[in-house]
Amino acid sequence: MTVQRCFFKNNQGAFGSAINASSTFSVTDCIFELNFGSSTGPINAGSSSGTSYVSNCQFINNGKLQCNTRRRPNGGGLCVERGHFIVEDSLFRGNITTNGGAIIALSDSSLWVKRCRFEANTANHLANDDFGDLSLLPGSPAIDAGNNSNLPIDIYDLDGDGDETDFLIGDLDLAGNSRFSDIWQTPDAHSTGPFAGAIDVGPIESQGQPCLADVNHDLRLTPADFTAWISAYRNRDPECDQNDDGWCLSSDFGAWLKNFNDGC
């Protein structure tokens, strides 16, 4: 089973209020919010063989009572009963349960967690926060902290483009914005590979503030941007407007020069 770019919210169930899997699966670029069950949080993994994956997901305010009524109770965001499980580049925030506020792996399982963030997950207590906007705030350590080399390959050609070697994640995030938006002020935690920028941790990519002086959009400030601005001025392109007043005027050159000197 492959699940990509989905939003699970306000679901209820016994074992896995969003997903209950007895076979291997892959979940990428998804949000799980306010899912509650009588036995687990949003995902209950029960495959006895193979490896399952969760990548670039957010688990916000999920949880409930116990992982399995026949065994010790656990699992606010993710319960791994059996098999091998890998969780990477994901955020767990505000999840609750009786034990293991965010994740629990039982004795018949193995769990590998890489580059994830855990915030305000709670065991043996209750919480009722609604975070609303799930995008990353400016300066978040999750920005540009993902690893592009770990992106899943579209081996089953799920996008139907005939290419089984491209990336399953696509070019857009869950909000429909660029998945590879690079924030200039934030150093990339890993190599970006063939992409313009490093991905963020979680399914919603921080778009940052536009760099107006980068007129040719090559993610660098060079003299070539001056030539690009002259062309934009002559053609009355949107990049000409450097002072954001809605007009393309000769005064925008002074604004471009200031933007260039200020940097991005």
Order of helices and strands: EEEEEEEEEEEEEEEEEHH
Major beta sheet, specifics?
A: 7 strands, parallel
Uncertain runs with pLDDT below 50, 5 residues or more?
65-73, 125-131
The shape, in one word, is: elongated
Structural class: mainly beta
Strand content: 15-25%
Please give the radius of gyration in angstroms. Answer: 22 Å
Distance between the termini: 42 Å
Whole-number count of domains: 2
Q: Could you give the count of β-strands?
A: 17
Share of helical residues: under 10%
Mean pLDDT over all positions: 78
User: How many separate helices?
Assistant: 2
What this model shows, in words?
The chain folds into two domains: 1-204, no CATH class; 224-262, no CATH class. It is built from two helices and 17 strands. The chain has helices spanning 224-235, 251-262; strands spanning 2-4, 7-9, 12-13, 19-21, 26-28, 31-33, 36-37, 43-45, 51-55, 58-60, 63-64, 78-88, 91-93, 96-97, 103-114, 117-119, 122-123. Mean pLDDT is 78; it is low at 65-73 and 125-131.
